[in-house]
Design brief:
mainly alpha, 2 domains, 6 helices, about 70% helix, NGX6/PGAP6/MYMK, cell membrane, membrane, transmembrane helix
Length: about 180
């Protein structure tokens, strides 16, 4: 969803590819920003590691509030700072509860040093590029924004999907 609308928006925004623009530019812009903010929200909720139905409730809360926020103002700081700030608050609360129950650090120290620290640094770099430096050289700075944002979530997302089953090797398709 996100990659489709971001790629299509950027293709239609630049010169030379008006043939692929089957939607209004305004709609492409909305879904591009919406998909990016929503991807951030869902990725950060994966970090929180909630069980059902709490996970679905938080994800749906983000889906609806982000849609309204982006409809109100697509280019303001709140488009990303709202979902990110709320997700960080939710994750911090969840992890503090885990630390209280465990009576120790949660998650392990290595997760903070190898994933969360570098991931937050790349995320901060991406947002600084997006909001403060894009007018320097839009093409290169915006491309690096996308790379930094992607690297941030590669680092932040959990290395193991705890929700996936462990029923052995994946099934082979017979064609």
């Amino acid at each position: 969803f996100t990659m489709f609308f971001v790629a299509l928006y950027h293709a239609c925004d630049g010169p030379g590819l008006p043939l692929v623009c089957f939607m209004r530019r305004d709609a492409l812009e909305y879904f591009s920003v919406y998909g990016t903010a929503l991807s951030m929200w869902v990725s950060l909720m994966a970090l929180a590691d909630f069980d059902e139905p709490k996970r679905s409730t938080f994800v749906m809360f983000g889906v609806l509030t982000i849609a309204v926020r982006i409809h109100h103002d697509r280019w303001g700081y709140g488009v990303y700072s709202g979902p990110i700030g709320t997700a960080v608050l939710i994750i911090a609360t969840k992890w503090l509860q885990q630390m209280k129950e465990k009576k120790g650090l949660y998650p392990d120290k290595s997760v903070y040093t190898q994933q969360i620290g570098p991931g937050l640094c790349f995320g901060a770099l991406a947002l600084m590029l997006r909001f403060f430096f894009e007018d320097w050289d839009y093409t290169y700075v915006h491309s690096f924004y996308h790379c930094a944002l992607a690297m941030s979530f590669v680092l932040l997302l959990p290395k193991v999907n705890k929700k996936a089953g462990s029923a052995g090797p994946p099934a082979k398709l017979d064609c």
